[in-house]
TrEMBL record, chain A:
Domain of life: Bacteria
Protein name as catalogued: ABC transporter related protein
Pfam families registered for this protein in UniProt: ABC_tran (PF00005)
PROSITE patterns: ABC_TRANSPORTER_1 (PS00211), ABC_TRANSPORTER_2 (PS50893)
Keyword DNA-binding set for record: no
Organism lineage: Bacteria, Pseudomonadati, Pseudomonadota, Betaproteobacteria, Nitrosomonadales
Domain ABC transporter residue range list: 6-242
Organism listed in the record: Methylotenera versatilis (strain 301)
UniProtKB/TrEMBL annotation, chain B:
Keyword Nuclease: no
Organism encoding this protein: Methylotenera versatilis (strain 301)
Bilayer topology annotation: Multi-pass membrane protein
Protein name: Intermembrane phospholipid transport system permease protein MlaE
Keyword Lipid metabolism: no
InterPro entries: ABC_MlaE_roteobac, MlaE_Permease, Permease_MalE
Superkingdom: Bacteria
From TrEMBL, chain C:
Region spans: Disordered: 150-182
Keyword tags: Membrane, Transmembrane, Transmembrane helix
Taxonomic lineage: Bacteria, Pseudomonadati, Pseudomonadota, Betaproteobacteria, Nitrosomonadales
InterPro entries with a match to the protein in the record: ABC_MlaD, Mce/MlaD, MlaD_Phospholipid_Transporter
Organism: Methylotenera versatilis (strain 301)
Name listed for the protein in its UniProt record: Mammalian cell entry related domain protein
A Pfam family: MlaD
Length: 266, 268, 182
């Protein structure tokens, strides 16, 4: 019996003849925080969409709890998404609903819980992220960090078994970043869930991840624990982890001969 | 060398036109598909009617001001212009007929639809486009909530319900505006104004046809606004362009449909 | 935006719409004097119906009493058969005249019923025996020109009576012209 909650098996995916993923293999064990890292445009967010069943792979499959995602019918996808919680990059709070209404949304839409119970649950979730006092505010009145935390409370509303984070640290101030960082870890452990983080923030991610996959050019170029990767001598990993200006990802965009182009100007 | 250049540019132009034509037809198909899905997933709009009520407020009630004010002015101008021409033939008492028939048959449904497209249509497109851009629709999907059932369908039914109400209001307020100019201001006989009108306006062929027109326009304008928002590229520029497209396409569609409907109605 | 406020405003909105619709129906349209009622059908044969159309009004003494239902062609008698629906409230004697008149100088044509003196009344499916055709403009004009021409002839040949026979028909026709009902 496998302990992997999510498995990505030889996945290929592409748009209009261009393959974004060319044979990806990943496993996400129960109770662990696993990070997917890579440069911009390497298809990290797309992997989350593939796991959530929003798009179908061209080849290979994604399995959640043993079920192949893209073979599910409407009911199957529904049950699948009930087990997942996703934190979107900009929070994606519903702008016409208050903080309370936002967190209550999944409970109201997907369960038949009475209002009194929803009330208690919402306040509990908001308390877990430290924003119980803000439950009457509208999303427009929240700062970026606060909005992100409310979105997190909404994502854990139904105690999901799988939590997915799309660039959770992007654009946050150091304090908010620290808050989110510790929340991801503590919530994962409290819920007994499996967390998948897509990020390119090396410092924060390495603090909380148990395992990291590096994606570049459509394949997994490297994988391991954060310690392993810090010590890695693979050129791509080294450049990424230490933020080197030049390396396998070049500084210069492909161009012609410098001197020749300058001469042409005259 | 120079011979191939004009030929190449002609071929490129033709390719461009062909590509644009195909794209338009594709869009039409995508729009039809969204329309079909909206109808299929409409159950929730009625089971949880407060969702639809909210949208009736946004599209219908918020448009009341512009509809009523415009109707008033249109009615008044109709009376003025109408009187100006009619009195040359000594038929100034027919002004009630002129104002009421113009409004009930044509101006009521059509002008209301154009104003609706401008005010409510753009609001719908911008709202949905923004929801798409900030990934709210994706978030809903990931929470196993159908965005078409939750966001698109209530707005569709709200538009279809609001439009005939607004058009009827437009006609009535316009006639009142025409009355105010014709009777107290110009001095046309009050009795003649109303009695000639009653003799010429047929409930079935004029008023009911006007309502049928406004229903059709409601479906068209709301669907166009919803589709443009749903399909907009998820960027700020994409959304703003989509709102412009809503107004342009809605207006052209309304005027075209008006011609088709009027020809049907005059024959039958 | 709480629900009670929305409910209130939507209610007002719909109420305004209904009020406008009622206003239009009552004040503007002719719903109150509608022809919603039971009717019975009778037919009438005409040699020429002019530009009479279905749904044209049927009037008696200037008051609308029914509508033209359909107009058919009888290929045996080469006549037009007009079926009209009359409101059940009104009974017409069996010797009623059915004429085709024109409303206004160049207006729509309608069927006018002139009651006769018979005691029996028309029932559903009966045929009106006495009819008068529509006035066709071209015929009128040619009659007028013809009568004008023969009048000048008459003046020129006032001494002789050889053209008397030619004059009479023209003269008779011109009196008819004077009786033309418009």
């Amino acid at each position: 019996m496998t302990n992997n909650i999510v498995e990505i098996d030889n996945l290929s995916f592409g748009y209009k003849g261009r393959l974004l993923h060319k044979g990806i293999n990943m496993v996400f064990p129960r109770g662990k925080v696993v990070a997917i890292m890579g440069g911009s445009g390497s298809g990290k967010t797309t992997l989350l969409r593939l796991i959530g069943g929003q798009i179908k792979p061209s080849k290979g499959e994604v399995r959640v709890h043993g079920d192949v995602v893209h073979k599910q019918d409407r009911d199957g996808i529904f049950k699948l998404r009930r087990k997942m919680g996703m934190l979107f990059q900009q929070g994606a709070l519903f702008t016409d609903l208050s903080v309370y209404e936002n967190v209550a949304f999944p409970m109201r839409e997907l369960t038949d819980l009475p209002d009194s119970m929803i009330h208690d649950l919402v306040l509990m979730k908001l308390n877990a992220v430290g924003l119980r006092g803000a439950h009457t505010l509208m999303p427009a009145e929240l700062s970026g960090g606060m909005a992100r935390r409310v979105a997190l409370a909404r994502a854990i509303a139904l105690d999901p078994a799988i939590m997915m984070y799309d660039e959770p640290f992007a654009g946050l101030d150091p304090i908010s970043m620290g808050v989110i960082c510790s929340l991801i870890r503590s919530l994962n452990d409290a819920l007994g869930a499996t967390s998948i983080i897509v990020s390119h923030d090396v410092k924060e991610t390495f603090l909380i991840a148990d395992y990291v996959y590096f994606v570049a050019n459509g394949v997994v170029t490297a994988e391991g624990t954060p310690d392993d990767l810090m010590k890695s001598t693979l050129p791509f990993v080294h450049q990424f982890v230490h933020g080197d200006k030049d390396g396998p990802v070049p500084f210069h965009y492909p161009a012609g001969n410098y001197q020749a182009e300058l001469m042409k100007q005259k | 060398m120079t011979k191939s250049n004009p030929l190449v540019s002609i071929i490129k132009t033709l390719q461009g036109i062909g590509h644009r034509m195909v794209e338009r037809i594709w869009r039409l198909g995508a729009g039809a598909r969204l329309f079909f899905l909206t109808i299929v997933y409409s159950g929730e709009s009625f089971k949880r009617f407060h969702l639809t009520m909210r949208e009736i407020y946004s599209t219908g009630v918020m448009s009341l001001l512009i509809i009523i004010v415009s109707a008033f002015f249109v009615g008044m101008v109709l009376a003025l212009q109408g009187y100006n021409t009619l009195q040359k033939y000594g038929s100034s008492e027919a002004i009630g007929v002129l104002v009421s028939l113009s409004l009930v048959r044509e101006l009521g449904p059509v002008v209301t639809a154009l104003l609706f497209a401008g005010r409510a249509g753009t609001a719908i497109t911008a709202e949905i486009g923004l929801m798409k851009t900030t990934e709210q629709l994706s978030a809903m999907e990931m929470m196993a909530v159908n965005p078409i059932a939750r966001v698109v369908a209530p707005r569709f039914w709200a538009g279809v319900i609001s439009m005939p109400i607004l058009a009827t209001l437009f006609s009535m307020v316009g006639i009142l505006g025409g009355y105010i100019v014709a009777v107290p201001l110009i001095g046309v006989d009050e009795g003649a104004f109303w009695s000639q009108m009653q003799a010429s306006v047929d409930f079935q062929s004029d008023i009911v046809n006007g309502i049928i027109k406004s229903l059709v326009f409601g479906v068209a304008c709301t669907m166009i606004a919803l589709f443009e928002g749903f399909d907009a590229p998820p960027t700020a520029e994409g959304v703003s362009r989509a709102t412009t497209r809503t107004v342009v396409i809605s207006s052209l569609t309304v005027l075209g449909l008006d011609f088709v409907l009027t020809s049907f109605m005059l024959v039958i | 935006m709480d629900r009670t406020k929305i409910d209130l405003w939507v209610g007002i909105f719909v109420a305004l719409g209904v009020a406008a619709l009622l206003g239009l129906a009552m004040k503007v349209g002719n719903l109150t004097s509608g022809k919603i009622g039971e009717t019975y059908s009778v037919t009438a044969a005409f040699e020429n119906v002019g530009s009479l159309k279905p749904h044209a009004p049927v009037k008696s003494a200037g008051v609308a009493v029914g509508r033209v239902d359909s107009i058919a062609f009888n290929s045996k008698t080469y006549e037009a058969i007009v079926t009209i629906k009359i409101d059940k409230r009104y009974n017409f004697p069996k010797d009623t005249f059915a004429n085709i008149y024109t409303a206004g100088l160049l207006g729509e044509q309608y069927v006018g019923l002139e009651a006769g003196g018979d005691e029996d009344v028309l029932k559903n499916g009966d045929k009106i025996a006495k009819t008068q055709d529509a006035v066709v403009l071209e015929k009128m004009i040619s009659q007028f020109l013809f009568s004008k021409a023969s009048e000048t002839d008459k003046d020129a040949k006032s001494s002789t009576s050889t053209s008397a026979s030619e004059v009479k028909p023209a003269g008779a026709k011109s009196t008819e012209l004077g009786d033309a009902p418009f």
